[in-house]
Amino acid sequence: MSAPANFNGKIPTIDVADTAMLLIDHQSGLFQTVADMPMTTLRANVIALAKAATLTGMPVITTASVPQGPNGPLIPEIHALAPHAKYVARKGQINAWDNPDFVDAVKATGKGTLIVAGTITSVCMAFPSISAVHEGYRVFAVIDASGTYSKMAQEVTLARVVQAGVVPIDTAAVLSELQQTWHRDDAQQWADAYTQVFPPYRLLIESYLKAQDVATQHEILDSDRA
Amino acid sequence: MSAPANFNGKIPTIDVADTAMLLIDHQSGLFQTVADMPMTTLRANVIALAKAATLTGMPVITTASVPQGPNGPLIPEIHALAPHAKYVARKGQINAWDNPDFVDAVKATGKGTLIVAGTITSVCMAFPSISAVHEGYRVFAVIDASGTYSKMAQEVTLARVVQAGVVPIDTAAVLSELQQTWHRDDAQQWADAYTQVFPPYRLLIESYLKAQDVATQHEILDSDRA
Amino acid sequence: MSAPANFNGKIPTIDVADTAMLLIDHQSGLFQTVADMPMTTLRANVIALAKAATLTGMPVITTASVPQGPNGPLIPEIHALAPHAKYVARKGQINAWDNPDFVDAVKATGKGTLIVAGTITSVCMAFPSISAVHEGYRVFAVIDASGTYSKMAQEVTLARVVQAGVVPIDTAAVLSELQQTWHRDDAQQWADAYTQVFPPYRLLIESYLKAQDVATQHEILDSDRA
Amino acid sequence: MSAPANFNGKIPTIDVADTAMLLIDHQSGLFQTVADMPMTTLRANVIALAKAATLTGMPVITTASVPQGPNGPLIPEIHALAPHAKYVARKGQINAWDNPDFVDAVKATGKGTLIVAGTITSVCMAFPSISAVHEGYRVFAVIDASGTYSKMAQEVTLARVVQAGVVPIDTAAVLSELQQTWHRDDAQQWADAYTQVFPPYRLLIESYLKAQDVATQHEILDSDRA
Amino acid sequence: MSAPANFNGKIPTIDVADTAMLLIDHQSGLFQTVADMPMTTLRANVIALAKAATLTGMPVITTASVPQGPNGPLIPEIHALAPHAKYVARKGQINAWDNPDFVDAVKATGKGTLIVAGTITSVCMAFPSISAVHEGYRVFAVIDASGTYSKMAQEVTLARVVQAGVVPIDTAAVLSELQQTWHRDDAQQWADAYTQVFPPYRLLIESYLKAQDVATQHEILDSDRA
Amino acid sequence: MSAPANFNGKIPTIDVADTAMLLIDHQSGLFQTVADMPMTTLRANVIALAKAATLTGMPVITTASVPQGPNGPLIPEIHALAPHAKYVARKGQINAWDNPDFVDAVKATGKGTLIVAGTITSVCMAFPSISAVHEGYRVFAVIDASGTYSKMAQEVTLARVVQAGVVPIDTAAVLSELQQTWHRDDAQQWADAYTQVFPPYRLLIESYLKAQDVATQHEILDSDRA
Amino acid sequence: MSAPANFNGKIPTIDVADTAMLLIDHQSGLFQTVADMPMTTLRANVIALAKAATLTGMPVITTASVPQGPNGPLIPEIHALAPHAKYVARKGQINAWDNPDFVDAVKATGKGTLIVAGTITSVCMAFPSISAVHEGYRVFAVIDASGTYSKMAQEVTLARVVQAGVVPIDTAAVLSELQQTWHRDDAQQWADAYTQVFPPYRLLIESYLKAQDVATQHEILDSDRA
Amino acid sequence: MSAPANFNGKIPTIDVADTAMLLIDHQSGLFQTVADMPMTTLRANVIALAKAATLTGMPVITTASVPQGPNGPLIPEIHALAPHAKYVARKGQINAWDNPDFVDAVKATGKGTLIVAGTITSVCMAFPSISAVHEGYRVFAVIDASGTYSKMAQEVTLARVVQAGVVPIDTAAVLSELQQTWHRDDAQQWADAYTQVFPPYRLLIESYLKAQDVATQHEILDSDRA
Question: Quick check: is D171 in a domain?
């Protein structure tokens, strides 16, 4: 349909109160096949999503594709940073949505909006996203917290999920739509999350703090020392 | 229309039982003109499709554009791996769908869904796909098992076929939608097919088997040898 | 609308009998600003379009943006290869469609379908294409026979014109939809046109002819000479 | 919806008389995180927009995200080149549209069409654009006068805003739609603006003037000197 | 020294009769860290070297770095294609030349010239190469049959080994210096080896054979069929 | 001279016992100017060097260029991971070697070999390296733990320092020449250091441990569960 | 030796009177394997060399590697543009210098300096160049009029031939060292040759002539017309 | 020779007191042919050199290649920023060193060291540099203030001039070797010059000044406002 599906006149942005996050198949073996972005970037973006879900108290559901085989284990940071996440074991189904336990877990959250990321994008993110749209969910697919085997495969998948009514989104946009404002007590923790997504932000903070420190401490510049 | 055409409320994923595969003009000469991806990647992806079609018993139709001229012969792997494929000779028509024998062969499969790949993407994949959509088929165009003369031409063609109602897809997604689950007897053969599409998977398997072998055989690490 | 505009159920491919070609602002100065593809590729693709228009006898309209200034003169190949092309001088209007003489020339062709290419893509191709769609024409925009100042600008323009109902297309696809079949007397001239669009095709022909010549002349291989 | 939203049959181009420009969060710190284009290109494109707004007398509204922190101050060129711009301070809201003062300022212009650019694209440009479309504005999002943390994030955002009904546009197209014709007294100032967007244009002008000067002054070529 | 070391006036090309080949640490785990070229290219180039060594009967020595750990097993093609290769187990030494058994094996060949490839280039190829030069060997380092973690690391290593007197070489050059002439009985096997190094060569052969077959069999072109 | 300077017949590899490490101007502001590699890669490589220096007990000297100004503070990881490092403040000199305190600190180590990294490569690494060679030191310049403003600048600097007799090296090679063997008690810490330099190594370890765990714990594969 | 070999104090630039040109194995099949530059660029550069040789009357020797097989025929432009070139058939030798007829032809020119280009760079250019240096010739290797299977192979070959004493050069430098001055009667033909090597030069000429024509003809700008 | 030529034991860095700068053929037409770096980067680097020459009072000599023709005029910034520069008109010679007036101007400076930049690198920079080395000058060639028609041509030229004894250098290194220390009265003007070479430096300064201003003015953060 190529319009954001199932919004029915609602603005196509994330309604935090109505949303759950699905993190699918982010496994050490599958990460070795990722070629549409640096794997370190992918890992950092997934970490940022897990952090943001915890900061907002949003439900998180995780699952893995045969983690006992070459696909490897889930990266440990997800459950470390989102300890409230619920893990659902599958029985070999490639599309997580084909696993009834997984769908039940999603339904149990009572939410109508889903943030979905999965590796590989073309399969583990796309199938559940299209399935969820088909069952009436509003779905935000986080393309750069997914990761697949070629840039072309990523581009094709982007076109496919948009055509299917999924809303495409990047990690920074997810964070910002969840955070909403810097006028909040946990602002520093959000700033930390952004340093995962765009690492220059960490340099900015380091330089900023030093510059202010020099100003307030009246530190002399080395080039002005006798 | 920019929505998946002819699905009429069905979910826009591949229904294996209703699908035939069209592999068009994958010829040694035309492969020399491919520049949107490494030609070896294209060849491997086409091989993976042929394997997957055979594993599912799906009908396959092949054809070539004047293989007696500079375009060259079909790559032999297609018929080697999908020996049940039906070859249709054309009479100079560039759009395979303009050849009545080809359309008849498609109709004879009795399927309503088509997986289409062709070199060059812009022409040999796009024209039959758009024609088939126009005649009521549900069409999945495998962009990275096609191949064309520039990345820009690939991107333009992606936009065009999506606009026409074709569902864009990559090779790995085709494989996964056909396979559905790892809980099947031929799982190993599917794993082999994936090593064509993302070669690091082969390394994963090699490392995995060795790691388990070391563990079960109690092999000592070289670095621990006296 | 994001669907091919004004087709009203017709298949969104080029109907040769109903089509005119507009080649806009392909000028030596503007070519220096092109950065989304090699300028030589752009020039070759424009040449191929002009050739193809002549082979089919299709009306061609050209125009230039202040060719007396830094934008420079039209590249001479267009009128050399499509001597039947009609040149329309503008009076400073950036959007060729804002010039009444240009619109009159288009209307005078009596065609309802337009193939449009123009440098720079973002402006000289996009504006007339969107304008023509708005006035009821079926428009095919040849992205890689246009050319603009960055890859990003090209991608943005592609998205914009598709959203507006224009059909995006590449040069090779235009050629093939016009040619339709190799079973025609001027097949060799079409082959020549393709060597502009994908230069390896020229190598294929050279190798092919030599291989056949060796076979029929029973030429001995150098490596087999005594 | 994937069609240009809120045009209701109007052609989806910029109606100068009905348009205001929003330049959001172009700050020295945030510029350090931009990776989808060279930062210098982004800065030059923003400069070109500010110049063009002034040449047309179009209302401009600016704002910044916590400019007292690591995000840094607005780049000074915006207000230098568009001294009539109105600056709206926010109170920590990430989406400028969440700030009532900002929305009031937009409404006060009385315009129904908005040109929006913002850093980072994924957040500071996308959220206000989607919000404005939702409230009935016609929105043109200037992708290459925005800037975000990865090319992938830019591509995802482009797809998202197009899906939401925003019209994507590049800086050169904005300039041309505002300028309309070279037959105007301030033509030279527009030419200057283009040299920001495609710097080779400056070389074209330099070469052009010298070539004419040589011709009219009958200057002898160095290679012809005795 | 930056000159080919230890040649003493001999031409710095490979003297087949005086040469042994060292293939070091081409392991499935280490291959996952390779980023200066596609891993598939590296694997194919190593295969080509093994084939060529067998065709010339040249001694081959292989070794691996703790293959019982995450580095993984040697890729099996090396010993499959060069069954005469001698494997030397190390005891944790990173520089194979630090392992006395390895050096003894090299000395036992009686050769004064070494062809060396190893993963990762920066370490497993560079250290033994520099060590061997230091002990008086003439060393050819096959950069594109090695593979390391970044293009920059490869470039730095190239500069380092050249500075140390190693002769840098690519896989195709090794093959050609070993083969010397197409006027030999095993010419076809060499052609096969080249298809590993530049895959388009396989297409050339396929097209060539078909073109000659069409000529000699008087096969009619499809486009000429009634 | 283009040969490794000052080795006088010694093999041009790192002699751990004779070596000190100089880490120069790795500052948060200067890191924003780095464009020859991702800044995160640079930061990780510097971290790896600091770790390796500590593991070997090698002397480390650090310095910064006017850290009270826009260049910003040293990244904190260097002194955190190499707490024994000696910091030398300069007085505005760009070439650290122009600062007598810095040279004195180097001399005080009593070492004849130096490992040098510095941001920006072209200046902060190159000048001290060339100066040190001129005074008789054997110098290893770690190109990918430095970082400069363009790839071209990095390439030019590589050529320049090689010409001056500096040995170019990458971070992984430094680690390996310092570590020498996996047969040591702190092997795990070296493995950790390598995960900084090539992050896939971390995935390899994760997958390896899981694979062995599955084998020894006889864990059933999800795809084999009933 | 890494110095220009055999110059013995002469400046390492081309002495036109003492130089012959060798164009080796520029064949249609081998061109399909070229991946270090666009094949069209390679072809244009070879054309420029042939033209320049003719303009200076310099001896040219050509040869091909088994042109009766998949390597294909020599591109016809070489002999078309340098009709005085002498073709030497080989008998299967890969290194042209291994063919006595070829060496005899070189010696017959009586020149001591050679300009060498050959496809593939790594083999057909490198071997004869190194051989010729070994026999006392001064050799200029034209890297971008050769062409090989990867950028890495090109870089490795550059390092190798420089190490062997060959002078590396690009096509434009060859042209300029042969031309020496614009103060010559055939200046226009040299300008034409440069348009092969850097195609924007053709645009410059077109714009230049038009600008002067407008000035001298007092042509009014379209934007100034009533 | 591949060592820095003519230094005779002097350290191969720039001795300001002994140095003149040659800026050759930086013309608007030739700039259109530059493809090894963005033309804007080249222009900025040339500007930085001119500024630095003026700050140090170093002699500057400029020249142009037939500026009355398509090569176009010198960019005006050179003489604007280095008004003391001496312009030497040539008489068609391509190698500026072939023009006696040019050599005389160089000799008249009385300097033994030359900083050379020229467009195109392969010709206008390389020839005079090699010529000057041959006549005993110490030459520093500024690769990224030159500019040529391809990255490959730049790389080949780098190798060639290094082989000839020229010292390769980048623009930032030239600036730093001329400036020597930040402890000087004109430090701010040098900082301005660096913002030409690495534009993020300008952002650093803007952010730094604002951060200090906020600290000293006790400005409240927007996110902390009520």
Answer: yes
> Residue type at B87?
Y
Q: What percent of chain C has pLDDT over 90?
A: 98
Indicate whether E4 belongs to any domain.
no
**What is the SS3 assignment for E132?**
helix
Express each pLDDT in A150-193 by its tens digit: 999 999 999 999 999 999 999 999 999 999 999 999 999 999 99
Closest CA to H153 of B185, G171, C74: G171
Verify that C135 and C184 share a domain, yes or no: yes
Instruction: Name the DSSP letter for residue A30.
Output: H
Q: b vs e for B156-182, b when ≥16 Cβ sit within 10 Å of the residue's Cβ?
A: bbbbbbbbbbbbbbbbbbbbbbbbbbb
The answer to whether position B49 is within a domain reads yes
Q: Which strands form B138-142's sheet, in the order they lie side by side?
A: B86-89, B60-64, B19-24, B113-118, B138-142, B167-169
- Give the CATH number for residue G157: 3.40.50.850
Write out the residues of chain H at the interface with chain A, using a CB-CB cutoff of 8 A.
181-183, 187, 204, 207-208, 211-212, 214-216, 222-224
Q: What is the pLDDT of residues B9-27, one digit of tens each?
A: 999 999 999 999 999 999 9
Instruction: Tell the residue number behind the tokens 């040591």, with chain if given.
Output: F184
Optimal mutation site among E39, E68, E201, E219, interface B, most CBs of chain B within 10 A: E68
pLDDT at H189 over 50: yes
State the nearest Cα–Cα gap between C165 and chain G, in angstroms: 31
E211 shares a domain with E163: no
The number of distinct structural domains making up chain A is 2
ipTM: 0.96
Let me know: does B169 contact A155? Beta carbons within 8 Å: no
Cα–Cα distance for residue pair A142/A126, rounded to 1 Å: 10
Does the pLDDT value for residue H1 go beyond 60?
Answer: no
CB neighbours (10 Å) of residue B56? 17
Cβ neighbours, 10 Å, residue D143? 28
pLDDT of F82 strictly over 70: yes
Q: Is A174 a member of any domain?
A: yes
Q: D137 and D214, same structural domain?
A: no
Nearest-CB residue to G207 (from C72, C203, C221): C72
Q: What is the mean pLDDT of each run of 10 residues along chain G (226 residues)?
A: 86 98 98 97 98 98 96 97 98 97 98 98 97 98 98 98 98 98 96 96 95 94 88
Judge contact between G191 and E196, C-beta under 8 A: no
| Omega cis (within 30) before B169 | no
Could you tell me the residue range of the domain that residue A49 belongs to? 16-190
Q: Provide the pLDDT confidence category of residue A225 given band limits of 50, 70 and 90.
A: confident
| Residue (of G75, E221, E190, B70) closest to C211 by Cα position | B70
- Same domain membership, residue F206 and residue F94: no
Could you please report the per-residue DSSP string of G40-61?
A: HHHHHHHHHHHHHHHHHT--EE
Q: d(Cα B76, Cα B60) in Å, to the nearest integer?
A: 15
One domain for residues B81 and B113: yes
- The reply to whether residue H144 touches residue F127, judged by beta carbons under 8 angstroms, is no
Same domain, D37 and D71: yes
**β-strand pairing of H138-142 with H113-118:** parallel
pTM of the predicted structure, to 2 decimals: 0.97
For E57-114, how does the pLDDT look when each residue is reduced to its tens digit (9 = 90+)? 999 999 999 999 999 999 999 999 999 999 999 999 999 999 999 999 999 999 999 9
Asked whether residue E112 falls in the same domain as residue E204, the answer is no
d(Cα B44, Cα H69) in Å, to the nearest integer?
53
Which chain E residue is nearest to residue F151, measuring alpha carbons?
A: E152
Together in a domain, D142 and D213: no
Residues in chain C: 226
Instruction: For C16-32, give one letter per residue: b (16+ CB within 10 A) or e.
Output: eeebbbbbbbbbbbbbb
The helix (H) or strand (E) run that includes residue H22 is strand H19-24
